[in-house]
Structure to design on (435 residues):
């Protein structure tokens, strides 16, 4: 089990230093985020603690050996008066123990019966170790979802900048055409002014796009946990998916690490109730030992070996056991409710993600058609304007339509990828690889 968890933890150490990293793709960005995230580091410590507690629970089955040495100094000791049979002799006093003496004792105690406490305690710690492992995986999945969505937002923002640049380029070209025609007296001053307005509008559009890119980049760096990093931003694509919501929900109930975590916590709570009941049963232990002392007068050193079978029957502890039992039952019910709530949230998340994906796919198809139509419209409008059978307004409108259509396509593809990241988070699996 230790080796399996290392696949999650120690793999982060294989990542190149961020100081020398250049153009990191999404996969390596995810690794960097996992390596730097403090919550992952905390969960790693929790796992180590749970593993040590499990080993401690195993140790409680083993015998306990104790060595005890004491040196006693007493101000007074009990004495016995002894009358001697010889006439005329006064009674003699003899101490029962020495005033100053030492005692050495070695004992071995082996629990034989604990009412199931040791066994149930071991099962709880074992379940806790596995539960923390899935808690770590759940946190990893959550961070991956955040970084993926940040990356897709950054890619969307970068493409928006590219679209804005092409808008500026087209507006500048139209402005140059309008200026040339105006100088030749072919078009009125209104066409020139309209072209200038459109060009400055395109510059403003580019400025906003660049600002959006900077914000998206800063959010990604913040969530990764680094101040400087060069990112290899790929243009987003999409692959049509055939999604069965019911099967996805079933997959999530089987694979989502949060569900696995809560199921283990439920088993842990069941053993907790059994431990609470074990408090009412007797405890049996075997004891063997060796003792040596010089406390007896007239005997240089006295030693002995001994053995015992101890039975401890709890009778009354001030109702503590009763309240601990009720607490254990409430804890079990609390975990049951948490598991049900988690399943409901995951089901809702999957339904919402699938709905977003289908909506995005529909928008992508519509936007693709709009881009092609707007491209043809712009080409036709420019040709008509150059041939002096079209107006400057037609060209400006066509540029705006083309830019808007490309923006809609870019936004739809980004939304598709973000929804897919959410779906993979809820199901706990890679959706694209399963298609």
């Amino acid at each position: 089990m230790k080796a399996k968890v290392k696949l999650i933890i120690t793999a982060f150490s294989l990542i190149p230093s961020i100081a020398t990293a250049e153009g990191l793709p999404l996969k390596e960005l995810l690794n960097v985020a996992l390596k730097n995230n403090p919550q992952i580091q905390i969960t790693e410590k929790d796992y180590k603690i749970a593993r040590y507690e499990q080993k401690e629970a195993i140790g409680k089955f083993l015998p306990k050996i104790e060595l005890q040495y004491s040196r006693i100094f007493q101000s007074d000791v009990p004495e016995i008066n002894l009358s001697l049979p010889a006439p005329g002799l006064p009674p003699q006093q003899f101490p029962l123990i020495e005033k100053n003496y030492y005692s050495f004792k070695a004992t071995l105690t082996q629990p034989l019966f604990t009412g199931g406490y040791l066994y149930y305690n071991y099962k709880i710690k074992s379940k806790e170790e596995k539960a923390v492992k899935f808690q770590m995986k759940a946190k990893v999945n959550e961070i991956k979802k955040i970084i993926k969505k940040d990356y897709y937002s950054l890619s969307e923002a970068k493409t928006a900048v590219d679209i804005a640049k092409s808008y500026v380029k087209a507006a500048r070209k139209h402005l140059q055409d309008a200026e040339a025609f105006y100088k030749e007296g072919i078009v009125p001053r209104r066409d020139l002014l309209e072209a200038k307005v459109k060009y400055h509008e395109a510059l403003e559009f580019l400025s906003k796009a660049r600002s959006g890119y900077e914000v998206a980049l800063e959010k990604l760096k913040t969530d990764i946990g680094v101040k400087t990093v060069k990112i290899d931003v790929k243009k987003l694509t999409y692959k049509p998916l055939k999604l069965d919501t019911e099967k996805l929900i079933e997959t999530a109930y089987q694979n989502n690490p949060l569900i696995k975590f809560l199921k283990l916590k439920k088993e842990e709570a069941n053993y907790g109730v059994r431990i609470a009941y074990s408090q009412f049963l007797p405890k049996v232990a075997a004891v063997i030992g060796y003792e040596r002392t010089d406390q007896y007068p007239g005997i240089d050193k006295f030693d002995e070996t001994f053995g015992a079978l101890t039975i401890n029957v709890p009778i009354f502890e001030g109702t503590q056991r009763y309240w601990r039992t009720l607490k254990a039952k409430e804890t079990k019910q609390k975990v049951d409710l948490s598991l049900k709530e988690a399943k409901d949230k995951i089901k809702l998340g999957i339904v919402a993600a699938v709905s977003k994906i289908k909506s995005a796919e529909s928008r992508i198809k519509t936007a693709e058609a709009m881009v092609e139509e707007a491209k043809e419209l712009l080409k036709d409008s420019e040709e008509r304007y150059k041939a002096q059978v079209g107006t400057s307004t037609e060209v400006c409108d066509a540029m705006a339509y083309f830019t808007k259509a490309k923006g809609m396509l870019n936004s739809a593809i980004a939304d598709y990828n973000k929804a897919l990241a959410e779906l993979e988070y809820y199901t706990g699996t890679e959706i694209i690889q399963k298609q």
